[in-house]
């Protein structure tokens, strides 16, 4: 056997690389076209999920929004998962205390918009808490 026959032949199909690159470019152009339309149609609510209906992207604002919604539900301001309006002030206070703890632990580390969302959520929850009768 000659030296050339001993080494296995390596066949590289570079055509698939071109195909993958074309697909990536098509995806990028589709997402670029959809973003302006989606931005104008998208709700401004921080808890709104992506267009696919999945959960929203994890962020500090979404966390605050989730805890705010939970506390408002516990204060009887929103229906619970069962559709009933119920009040549970001790658990609502715990949720408000959790947000206060987040505020103190993240002091100096939040962006301005995150700080404002947290501050406004706590203010609204405190005002609602004192207005709700046991």
From TrEMBL:
Pfam families: DUF1844
Record's compositionally biased regions (Basic and acidic residues): 1-33
Region (Disordered): 1-58
Domain of life, per lineage: Bacteria
InterPro entries for this protein: DUF1844
Stretches with biased composition (Low complexity): 34-49
Name of protein: DUF1844 domain-containing protein
Organism: Crateriforma conspicua
């Amino acid at each position: 056997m000659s030296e050339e026959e001993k080494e296995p032949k390596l066949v590289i199909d570079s055509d698939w690389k071109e195909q993958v690159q074309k697909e990536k470019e098509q995806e990028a152009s589709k997402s670029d076209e959809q973003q302006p339309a989606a931005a104008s149609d998208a709700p401004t609510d921080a808890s709104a999920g992506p267009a696919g209906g999945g959960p929203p992207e994890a962020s500090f604002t979404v966390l605050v929004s989730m805890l705010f919604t939970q506390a408002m539900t516990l204060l009887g301001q929103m229906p619970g998962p069962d559709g009933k309006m119920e009040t549970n002030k001790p658990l609502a206070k715990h949720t408000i205390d959790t947000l206060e703890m987040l505020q103190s632990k993240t002091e100096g580390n939040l962006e301005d918009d995150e700080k404002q969302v947290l501050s406004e959520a706590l203010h609204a929850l405190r005002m609602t808490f004192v207005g709700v009768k046991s």
